[in-house]
Design brief:
alpha/beta; TIM Barrel; DUF72; UPF0759_sf; DUF72 domain-containing protein
């Protein structure tokens, strides 16, 4: 595993555009929204590539809209991971990476999300599949089969495979949202779609990936259901607290983690991401002053026309 020369924490969200967000410039087109986002956040989850491939023109637009130090983390198509189960997919893999060639330098982690049916008996298939991928790219694998979370031989074999190849194990932390009862439609939807798996914060590569699936963060997003304290459960900040030390530890080891912040409907994810970034920065300044500090500045990204930010409607 080769570690990056200058470790850093990149913080982002599941998407760069959402109906519940607006910038100070009304009527921005899709390219401008990505540009505005990339001036505030250093990375984004490219989950749309899981459902459908973009056009070559769209890939070029994304390349043009982002600065050189921005990093995408595109997900491999479900055609490859779910329909073909990583088998007999050489042409699909070649097509995918040919399409994304303009963004190779700006993609920090290519994500392989595997379905819950993909179990220990399929590890050899994963090994063979990895040989089809371009050399030298950052990779992350997300599993959902229970055996890979049981701390038995299956999980050890999986982790060993990733460590041997310097591939990142993608870590899902869904504890915050599952701590809540289904008090509104967005939380109910999150309960149905997100995996309820144990959190095993193990770094197997140079770029640990954490997907923090949070509770609603603002009163508007809570609705009439009440806040965590009203429901007798811990809130986002309590669930996030252990990650402060873990992220700092990875930085100290020379790793560059990716942290992605979700809320049930993502309308208030930018505000939560900003608050958590401040906590990470404060922790590093207090206990690890020599480590680089992440910066997420809502409403402070400069543009030719004034200030660009991500406000909330």
């Amino acid at each position: 595993m080769s570690l990056p020369e200058t470790p850093t924490i990149r913080i982002g969200m599941a998407m760069w555009s959402h109906p519940g967000w607006k910038t100070v410039f009304p009527g921005l087109d899709a390219e401008a929204r990505l540009t505005a986002y990339s001036r505030v956040f250093g990375t984004v989850e490219g989950n749309t590539s899981f459902y459908a491939l973009p056009s070559a023109q769209q890939v070029s637009i994304w390349q043009r809209a982002t600065p050189e130090d921005f990093r995408f983390t595109f997900k491999l198509p479900r055609r490859i991971t779910h329909e073909l189960s990583l088998r007999n997919c050489r042409e699909e893999v070649l097509q995918f990476f040919r399409l994304f060639e303009p963004l190779m330098a700006k993609t920090g982690v290519w994500k392989i999300q595997l379905p819950a049916r993909f179990g220990p008996e399929s590890l050899s298939v994963l090994t063979q599949f990895l040989s089809l991928l371009p050399e030298g790219i950052g990779l992350g694998v997300e599993v959902r089969h229970r055996a890979f979370f049981a701390k038995g031989e299956a999980e050890k074999d999986f982790n060993r495979l990733l460590m041997d190849k310097g591939i990142n194990r993608i870590i899902m932390d869904t504890r915050p949202v599952f701590a809540l009862p289904a008090i509104n439609e967005a939380i109910t939807d999150a309960h149905q779609k997100k995996p309820r798996v144990p959190v095993h914060p193990l770094a197997t590569g140079a770029h640990p990936v954490v997907r923090f699936i949070a509770q609603p963060h603002t009163p508007a997003a809570w609705g009439p259901g009440g806040k965590p304290a009203d429901l007798g459960c811990a809130d986002n900040l309590a669930f996030f607290a252990p990650w402060l030390g873990k992220l700092a530890g990875w930085l100290a080891e020379g790793r560059s983690p990716y942290l992605f912040i979700h809320t049930p409907d993502n309308s208030d994810a930018p505000l939560l991401a900003s608050e958590l970034a401040k906590q990470v920065a404060a922790h590093l300044q207090a206990l690890h002053p020599g480590l680089p500090i992440p910066s997420v500045m809502l409403d402070s990204a400069e543009s030719d026309g004034g200030q660009i930010g991500l406000g909330l409607q």
